[in-house]
């Protein structure tokens, strides 16, 4: 089932990836169009191995932490005195226990979800509260019970969950709840994460504590969701997420393949009663031209009991359709949802569907089946390829000997001068990216007893991405001679290009099979009984990857190998990998020690010849140790040391196997390494206000860059990826949280960070289309592109639960670094790399909600505004301007360096007589952040 199905269907394309284009006789494609019988048997054998893995290894297999939390609290009477030995239990489970002599209780190893907590005590009225348990968090719920001499009706109260400090945790974590995602003016969970201390958001990437954007691992319900080809995670609709936990530092041994941090996502499950909501947002106010971005979003989430006893379901859908603030003039293709629902033509279209079926076989056994399906179609914006009008067609007067006649484009006009002028919409010749993601997963949770739980999980994930022009195959591209508009001859009019199809084609397909699991057990007597308890965990995972890749520039050019596309890169590889970990939490004399060790195994597979591979299988052992010291009931100090590894994106291992490639992967790459230290303090000011303070230092080495190396068997050298770059990051984080009380709630996050390194990107040392400026690497550490020294975010929520609520978000960040360039320079001075700063950025956004009831339904009216002050923030000083013509990306940088004005420009005639060419501004909107937008919405709860 496709969430979006574009029409018309793509021609010449088989449903299976990859597709091999026609070649000349004798030419060989390195990417087969389908699996042969041997490959099928190989995949089958691997799947069988994955299915048998838990049996062979035992119940302790996983790379992801068990999705459990804890509940703690105190039971008091009307005078505030603790009620001793009251019974506390979670309805529908066998989890619970008895409060101690002071009325305090703790329930550990509670699976993530919403529960009803019940308290019973002789001589007191029974009472219940509902509570939400998040992964690796402790929810605090206090009870005040009243004395009753006679049997009374049970009291049902909605739980008022208080803030609790993590007394036994030595890591730094930030939490985003489902309520945050509903009330904040954000479009996705990543925007909400970007508001947290220690997180820098730049260009759609999240940088945790100074790390690169591909160093954050996303885990969904205990299963790692990362495309091994290029480190992209899954996106979920806002109504699909139950909670999001960000681990920024102090990663314990259960977390692997993540240099900077982890995002732990938990999806929602259906309850015992049917319920849900529908929301609709738009910025269209009647007429099409009365709109900011032609934006519409419809989302729904609903669930309840299923057909069978003890079975629940939850389904969510989110569809977003917008022309974005980077709207081009192309006529967008029609697309459909579920093959029969027509959706409007927009430049950016996405659909996110998730469904979960839960079988509660017994109070201690739960089985989940889940499907996540995402589809998106995104058109590109290029300032030079965004013109609609007429172009003069000229044909060569002298026919060549082979009989072909070359068509050239001449003058441009916004009206048809004569019949030799033909219609031209350059934006329609830009590529469209079609992304498709599908995950099917099954999870099994079994509570063997108090404090003893094991989890087993299996999943299949598939990523497919195609980027092409007008659904064309490489040999169908129309590449016309480069007749760019010449600004030297005319001073008026916008700059444009008429050069046929944008010369780029890409297709990728990745399939990952995963089996993982974990086992945890609480050992020893509790501290209250004078013991020194252990919380032991073990686990591991098995993964098998099927990687397919095809990318080419100038797709219709036929190479000497008989294959289409200059700079062609094509491969199909398979590789297995796995891990195992041990983790223990030991409580002794008021101190909690978290110690663990992790073993990772990675193989490049058997398809690369032994002559090119030094070690076909690579292993790593990484220790982790943390200490938490609860100073009081309100204060905890912690320290953590960890050695973290991450296997490079597989594209840097396998790419460039063809001679025509301009860069080459390296099967001998080692894992990238981070040595991390952190010191943290948590303080509970009162029952409503919580603070977290952290200091961190990270030493990062083995990062990727390129050096010239000879291809084995050929007398040529090609830039090859190696582990040679390094970086360091240090900083301070402060978080203050006030829960909702007295009519308001708030959160303040501040980060000071200093991130330096030898390069911000693995491709930094590659030749930039013949421009020698970028080939000279820094000789010492320089600020990296995302080195934002000061970052502040503040949220404020006002209102009441019955009538209204307003949430405000303010963000401020100091300027990002950039490298100044001069028009006369021949080579770049390494000491000037990122030596100057852009202006600071700031935004103010809000979301208002008005609650009311009509026609027997709970309704909500929304108004949402982003960048309310319409601040002109620079987000990308030098956007992509490939392929180069009369203007290139350095012109944008030089223009800003010389004038202090952003937006891009090209050089034209000398108008002031100073002997130098003058600038003609183009005002490229990609340089700036989106301006002010106002949306309205309606929600229905049922």
Automatic annotation (TrEMBL):
GO terms for biological process: siderophore transmembrane transport. It comes from the Bacteria. PROSITE patterns: TONB_DEPENDENT_REC_3. One of its GO terms (cellular component) is cell outer membrane. The keyword Transport applies. Keywords: Cell outer membrane, Membrane, Receptor, Signal, TonB box, Transmembrane, Transmembrane beta strand, Transport. SUPFAM superfamilies: Porins, Starch-binding domain-like. It is a multi-pass membrane protein. InterPro entries: Beta-barrel_TonB (IPR000531), Beta-barrel_TonB_sf (IPR036942), Carb-bd-like_fold (IPR013784), Plug_dom_sf (IPR037066), TonB-dep_rcpt-like (IPR039426). It is found in: Cell outer membrane. Residues 400-868 form the TonB-dependent receptor-like beta-barrel domain. GO terms for molecular function: carbohydrate binding; siderophore uptake transmembrane transporter activity. Residues 1-33 are annotated as: Disordered. It holds the Pfam family TonB_dep_Rec_b-barrel. Belongs to the TonB-dependent receptor family. PANTHER family: HEMOGLOBIN AND HEMOGLOBIN-HAPTOGLOBIN-BINDING PROTEIN 1-RELATED (PTHR30069:SF29), TONB-DEPENDENT OUTER MEMBRANE RECEPTOR (PTHR30069). This is TonB-dependent receptor. It comes from Eiseniibacteriota bacterium.
